[in-house]
Amino acid sequence: MSQFAVITIDLNPNLFQVGAFLVTWHGVFSVLGILAAARLGAYLLESDGITPQQVYDMAVWMVVLGIVGARLLYVWENYKLFAAGPPYKVFLLNEGGISQWGGIFGALVGGWLWCRRHRVPFLRVIDAAGPANAVGFLIGRIGDVINGEHHGTPTTLPWGVNYVNEHTLGQPGHIVHPEVAYEMLWCIVLLAAGLPLYRRLKARYPDGVVGLAWLGIYAAGRFLLSYLREDSLFLGLRQAQWAGLLMVLIAIGGIIYLLRRPSPPPAEMAEVAA
Question: 156: Cβ–Cβ under 8 A, 6 or more apart, which residues?
């Protein structure tokens, strides 16, 4: 294939460094993605009686538990990198990385704990989490594309990417699928198709159904796209695929339960909404 038939990315993944503090494109866009997710979540939840201040307070819990979950799953996925080293390396986020699915599950746990503490209906938060997750990852993945993280499989397609920067985290000398960019396109499709219908679907189905459907559909797409990654295999599937499959099963089971669950009496509904 001619080198003109590929997308060449020659960008340094690092912006600048002050002492031991290193600022990367991944970090910058991760923060922007979190802020965008919190803002969209606040907008969607305001009609459910949850104030923006409450959402931003809850977001702190979700971010902290999300980082913990993301790191723990990354360590599990790459246990060979940590098995021989001192245990404290598990906590060094600048050595290694984090896992997306661990972040999602950890953030949901953080949201659930906050809702329990403040007596806020968690299922309404789940509904808003679907679109918020999509916009957050849409923005956050820009940094991954620049950095060359999440290695793709080889391709001869004209939109294959070749990372050439000397500091890249990609695969210099290999033309690969821009799998992370595919994930971004998947998030755009979900937002374009789902956001215009969000209020209508919320009014039709019990709390939690819309969000679980959104997260389940997102996970199904990620499951398929993971075949274009060069991640390690575990029992025939990549670890991210197992996590995505778990999310799909949780979504299906949760939707069936919520649709079959008897509706609470009006008095109880008013108490929950209060």
Answer: 1, 175
